[in-house]
Amino acid sequence: MADSTQTEPEPEGRAGKAASAKAASAKAASAKAEKQVKRLAHQMTAFARDHGGSAEGQLAHIGRGTVRVALVGANGDWGTLVAPSHDTARRAAESAGITLHDDFAGELAAKVRTGPYEWTRMAGIQLGGPPNA
After folding, report:
1. Gap between the terminal Cα atoms of the chain
2. Cα separation, 54 vs 98, whole angstroms
3. Model confidence pLDDT, tens digit, residues 16-48
4. How far apart are CA 93 and CA 90, in angstroms?
């Protein structure tokens, strides 16, 4: 007689499908992260190329895991990008050959060249100057 307290083992197919679905999800997430790194690296490389051939940057957390990448070109022009994570931004900067600084002060800040737009904008906000067109 069969023992009625024994349960039948779970079919291997169900557990195997769950594991393979989890692996597929992880692989898709990894592929998405790599695509984001590649896209950011391309944008950083283009910025460096268009602004004197090289650039330096600084990473700053801006909320909900996102990171601002402040870039300063060799010619003093600057710009920012937003990355979905610190790791993504760091890996993209490494891939693009961007030197990262711990803070946006000192030597890096001294390289920034501001133009008429920035000065007008700052005056418009702080001193009641003319609004930007």
Report:
1. 91
2. 7
3. 666 677 777 777 778 888 999 999 999 999 999
4. 5
